[in-house]
Amino acid sequence: MTTPVLESRTTALEAAMAELAVAQAAAARSLDRLSREMTDFKREMTDFKDEMALFKDEMALFKDEMAASWERNERARLDDRRDWEQRSAEDRHNWNKRWGELSNRLGTMVEDLVAPSLPRIAEPYLQLPQGYPIETALRVKRRHPADPSRTREVDALCSSPSTWIACEARSRLTARHVSAFAEGLAELREFFPEYADRRLFGCLASLAVEPDVVTFAERCGLLVLAIGDELMDVLNSPGFLPKAF
């Protein structure tokens, strides 16, 4: 005959065993999930290594093509200067295009293409005093002075005592991007109070831009850049004047 105390202890033991079984099952599920996650991670790492190896091969091939092209151009220069100049222009454009595609894959389009080109492109619009250097900055992130929870980032900017140009880079530029950028330019001034008394021009850069998108950007008063003969060139119509925001 069992006593109430023994029955109570038996019940408690059974409950504890049930809790242990539940905990073991939960631990088994967690281990199984962790095992699947580790398998997925290893597969992603393998894919990443394969992609990097492919990229290195493309870079090596790109360098070889540049070397071969240079050798061809040297021979052509000796034979026919006009032919050499034409080939040089074509190869320069192709190199810039290939370099732009590779830079875009690595996310370095701003550093590799926009940054070297922007001072040259911006100079006619900055109204620089004689001998005044063009000030440039990349990946500038600012918090709003009155609301620190709000932030804005500018891919690249150039400035002078009277004007500054804010540039955004996109791997593919659409009319929707143009509209959003134009609408946000006026607000951008709030994040850069030190430029409050200067004219602001907007600039969009991409690897290639459809003609209708360029036309739309011009209507919005924006400069448009894309791969050209000198890394990046202005696609706007001759004589176009950007809008001051």
Describe the structure.
The longest helix has 76 residues, at 4-79. The chain has 5 helices and 6 strands. It is of the alpha/beta class and 245 residues long. It folds into 2 domains: 1-79; 109-234, 3-Layer(aba) Sandwich (Trna Endonuclease, Chain: A, domain 1), CATH 3.40.1350. A hairpin with a 3-residue loop joins strand 2 and strand 3.
Give a brief outline of the structure:
The chain is of the alpha/beta class and 245 residues long. Helix content is 60%, strand content 17%.
Integer-rounded radius of gyration: 30 Å
- Give the SSE order as H and E letters: HHHEEEHEHEE
The global form is flat
- What percent of the residues sit in helical stretches (DSSP H or I)? 55-70%
Poorly predicted regions: none
CATH class of the largest domain: Alpha Beta
Q: Mean pLDDT, rounded to whole units?
A: 79
Tell me the number of helical segments per DSSP (H or I, 4 or more residues long).
5
Reported for the largest beta sheet, the result is: 6 strands, mixed
* CATH architecture classification of the largest domain: 3-Layer(aba) Sandwich
Structural class assignment:
alpha/beta
Q: Examine the coordinates and then state which fold CATH places here, giving the name of the CATH topology of the largest domain.
A: Trna Endonuclease, Chain: A, domain 1
- How far apart, in Å, are the first and last alpha carbons? 94 Å
Count of beta strands: 6
Strand-residue proportion: 15-25%
- Order of strands across the widest beta sheet? 1-2-3-4-5-6
What count of structural domains?
Answer: 2
